[in-house]
Amino acid sequence: MQVAQRIKRFRESVIREMTRLAIEYDAINLSQGFQDFNPPPEVMEAAARAIRDGHNQYSPTWGLPVLREKLAEQYTQRLDWEVDAAQHVTVTCGVTEAINVAMLALLNPGDQILLIEPAHENFIPSAIFAGAKPVAVPLTLPDYRLDAERLAQAVTPRTRALLLNTPHNPSGRVFDEKELAAVVEIVQSNDLVLITDEIYDRILYDGRDHRSPGKMTALRERTITVGGLSKTFAMTGWRLGYIVAPTALSAAVRPVHDFLTVCAPTPLQAAAVTALSMPQSYYDDMLADYHRRREAMMTVLQALAFSAPTPQGSYYVLADYSGIGVEQAQLDSTAFAIWLTKDVGVAVVPGTVFYSIPGHGESSVRFAFPKQLATLQAAGERLERLRA
Ligand code: PLP
Q1: For domain 41-276, which CATH number applies: 3.30.70.2740, 3.20.20.70, 3.40.640.10, 3.40.1160.10?
Q2: Closest ligand 1 atom to 316 CA
Q3: Which fold has domain 5-32+280-386?
Q4: Ligand 1 centre from 353 Cα, in Å?
Q5: How far is the CA of 166 from the centre of ligand 1 (A)?
Q6: Which of 7, 186, 208, 335 could form a disulfide with 204 if both were Cys (CB 3.0 to 4.6 A apart)?
Q7: What is the pLDDT at residue 55?
Q8: Is the CB–ligand 1 distance for residue 368 below 6 Å?
Q9: How much distance in Å is there from the Cα of 152 to the middle of ligand 1?
Q10: Centroid of ligand 1 to alpha carbon of 180 (angstroms)
Q11: Within the chain, where are the H helices?
């Protein structure tokens, strides 16, 4: 059967494949980045109520007005410009849709977009959907720092956009002032659009604050700020995300969203208002829980001689296994991840999945720790097998 060339340019999702293997081999699933606990009870109740109350038809394509109002209020504060619900906020089916929509709206076939690697697995396919060429800019190991010079060298006359994800999956980095200044400089001086993926904006450790790049005056008119509810509210299956962008960029993304999905699920949008209205104590408790999970994960990995920088944000550890005391430490990252899943019973993601640059990501695997402490403890017990 004849199929489109574009789908031949990318592989199937290895992360989803690891989840499939985890189920098949009854492994503890630390591969895909979803929680093994529920959203807040009042938010689940709000969704059930919204369905019972009849919020079951298409919403306005840009999102329920009450949800957009809520987001506009929050982003006016965060971005420090007057975000208008009617013009600047578009609710999408997750950040996944938002990134696709942004790229389809911005990029012509042959245009280039800078992707910082390691990168979330979906970014390259999104660029390919748009007919664009993803150009990889690797972070510098061992700390996964963003290097201004490498970024500058990757720009060509065809470069149209840069995608920045902070806090970062899979490295756990929160890019600092100096790194963000490099992004501003590159975007501004090359007339690019910045797409930010800020899905982990509420999960930062050790008192760090999230800074939205779109707040910087120099970037205001050229930033598409993307956020979502999947991670903050433990609702990855609800598929809720959004785009906040100035008028011209919003006008570009909106029709793409409309014709792709029409709207995000209406009753869940209604319940999202309850989620976004949670008191500060919800965020404080969530963050305290994530600190405990990070501690549990790092303690296990360090005891087994995995080497990894402690995450500054998000909920992943990209860990080098070359120093652990079993012979499988010699395996390549795909073989090691499959062995860990099938034989040890802990599913992880091969580091190479996050790179398009050959050889990068070898000897590393990603552990996702948005899990109950009991789950992490059980994983730790299974991983004891790796002790030298
Ligand atoms: N962006 C990043 C950086 C992610 O890590 C993920 C999920 O793991 C997504 C986007 C997908 O988000 P959503 O569930 O909102 O589609």
Answers
A1: 3.40.640.10
A2: 5
A3: Aspartate Aminotransferase, domain 1 (3.90.1150)
A4: 15
A5: 12
A6: 208
A7: 97
A8: no
A9: 26
A10: 21
A11: 5-8, 14-24, 41-52, 65-79, 85-88, 94-106, 123-129, 148-154, 177-189, 247-261, 266-276, 280-303, 333-339, 373-383
Give tens-digit pLDDT for 335-348.
Answer: 999 999 999 999 99
Candidate from 163, 166, 203, 230 with most ligand 1 atoms within 8 A of CB, to mutate:
230
Domain with CATH 3.40.640.10 in the chain: 41-276
For the Cβ of 94 lying below 6 angstroms from any atom of ligand 1, the answer is yes
Instruction: Judge if the upstream peptide bond of residue 167 is cis by omega within 30 degrees of 0.
Output: yes
- 228 CA to centre of ligand 1 in angstroms: 8
Select the more confidently predicted residue: 19 or 363: 363
Output the six-digit token pair for 303: 């005891």
Question: Is any ligand 1 atom within 6 A of the Cβ of residue 95?
Answer: yes
Alpha-carbon gap, residue 14 to 382, rounded angstroms: 23
pLDDT of residue 13: 80
pLDDT higher than 90, residue 9: no
User: Contact at 8 Å (CB) between 290 and 35?
Assistant: no
| Residue 138 to residue 115: CA distance in whole angstroms | 8
User: What percentage of the chain reaches a pLDDT higher than 70?
Assistant: 100
Please give the distance, rounded to the nearest whole angstrom, from the Cα atom of residue 52 to the centre of ligand 1.
Answer: 29
Q: Give residue 105's identity as a one-letter amino acid code.
A: A
- Say if residue 30's pLDDT is above 90: yes
C-alpha separations of 68 from 105, 120, 212, 270, 273 in Å: 21, 27, 18, 10, 9
**Whether the predicted pLDDT of 172 surpasses 90:** yes
What 8-state DSSP symbol labels residue 304?
T
Q: Which residues pair with 91 in a beta bridge?
A: 242
Q: How confident is the model at residue 10 (pLDDT cuts 50, 70, 90)?
A: confident
